[in-house]
Amino acid sequence: MGNTHPGATSPLGMVSACAYSGAYPTGYGRYAKNTEGVPEEMFARTEASGFTHFQQSGTGAIRKYYNYVRVTPMVQPLDDLGQSWALHDERAEPGYYAANLDTGVRCETTVGEKVAVHRYTFPDHHSARVVIDLSCGGLAIDLGRTVPLRAQVESMGRGTAQGTVVMEGVPLSVYLEADTPGWRQMLWYDRRLIPGGTRLDFDSIRHTTLRPFGLLFVGSARAGQSVEVRMGFSLRGCEQARRNLYQECGTGEPAFETIRVRTRHRWRDHIDRVQVEGGTPARRTVLATALYHSLIKPCFADDESPFWPTSGPYAFDICTMWDIYKTQLPLLQAIVPDRAMDLLESLIRVCEEEGNFPIGYRMARGADRFFRQASALAHTAIADAHALGRGGVDWGWALVHMVDDLRRMYGEDFFEHGLVHPITHTLDLAYAHHATAQVARALNDRRLADDLERRGHQWVNAFDPATGLLRDSEFYEGGKWNYSFRLLHDMAARIALSGGDRGFVDQLDRFFGYGAEPVEQPGVRPQPAEMALGYALNRFEGLNNEPDMEAPWAYHYAGRPDRTAGIVHSALTWQFGTRPGGLPGNDDSGGLSAWYVWASLGLFPVAGQNLFLVNAPAFARAALRVGDEEFVIETSGHRETPISMDGLDQEPPAQYVQAATLNGKPLHAAYLSATDVHRGGRLHLELGPRASTWGHENRPPSHSFTT
User: Glycosyl hydrolase family 92 N-terminal domain: from which residue to which, for each copy (predicted)?
Assistant: First the structure.
């Protein structure tokens, strides 16, 4: 699954472009909406009705989707707009997507940071056309459509046009140029041409009154003739969209190859920030793909906020924070620290302008913030950035917003009672109090830090001392077993609640299914009773969702990093592959892919604690470019291991660390401070096929509360 798409993207750029079928969840593909079991086919073939812009990446059911401004090359009458045609000979590269429609048109798209460029090569036809549909939005599924509220389209002649559609409270503007010499340019409404018309205005659109509208270019095409359409986008009006177009594409000249090459170089620069040696071709492909997926979102639209007038970083498609705060945000902080800090500045500005730190934030207005999932997660990323000594943020002002945000939504009940349901929010809020306390103490506000740390210790209220697990409650996409093994700030006390190391490891072993019978996976349209039986197993769901990302690493805190090694190695080997279905769950805006990147390097960031856990890497050598420095992970005794079904009947992998050194000095602990990684250095790991006692005695730090 994964729910990713092959469309053209730029690293953390604002715009994407992809073939559009209307399928769940990105608008590309063949499948109907599905959150459990095997997905049901919506179409029997891969097809498209055109090419849209702004796609999600790896999300699941997030209510609404973009797919705005559909561009359709046609050799049919305008009445056929909306019909889908089969896609053939698809080709996807970072920043580029191409396919043939079975109408005989070759279609290519590429994107820059705020622009998209389309190139269509037509067969010989007396009436070829390129149709721009500004009414398009959302998915072709039940309740999946997005209807504009207001719109304006203006045909300016000589291959230029502009328009604005207000979608979900956000004004999206586009300024376009088309190289269509000798072709006519016309507006259309409800699939009817408006000869001589230059402007369409819609002051109030409803679901019941919406009719498609836009403009088109039509004329005679010779076989092999190409047409280029250049589009600049903005959330601040057509004039800024025009400036964005000219800044990236220049004025009036073909720009497809220029943008394609520039974006390819940008991708190469970003992907090259993680280098590996060794590994099978398939494993290297999965790693590169995971790194690519980790750098698609969030979308940065600098100086484009539609909600406040000042300039500065503006980020959206943080969908959702609960998926990315543990893995992807630490990856951004390592390899693109400037963008990571821009994201934090943007989140602080959202809190300042709109009243709270969002758990999710899309290109939409309103309360679509995913509060059911989690609370106060931005605090961990802010605390980590401060601990790393990052600049560019007014930390005192950030602390003010961190503290205020702790009292919002579920935080008010937590403040008054030290316990809130859903019970996972108790863990979130306690952890956020701890993270905020670290910033307060570093800024010498000791009284505030003491109070926050005291409240942060109230995580214990979430656990049942009789079972050592979370109390019964409601749980979002999981159960109390999934959430009971989160990496808290006081894991020593947490482990004591389960009866000490032995009891905690026994519970983890049960969760991961040691000694249990194999489980039959659900099929198409599983019934509630079937799903309930599966959930009642209280088992690891195989990285299928956010709660399970960090559970394998909990063994480190009980002195069993060898157990972590076995589970992580199995996940890297069996749950990821190069074929369709090569991800074990939704990629969730890069959260899952970032987990794969870190795990392949033998590291796991403990968000909010300035800490990395250490494990056997999947490659003989790796180098991570962290800012201006380089952190190298090298091994001795590494043994190549195939992935997926190719991994059957192989020799035992060298998946256990036997000994380690950091910058030439012995390292007896299975963890590093994030500062050690970010300042650069060399970690050497001696590997072997049998579990050792390395890292058993030196536990990762626990931050206990003392009065």
Answer: 2-234
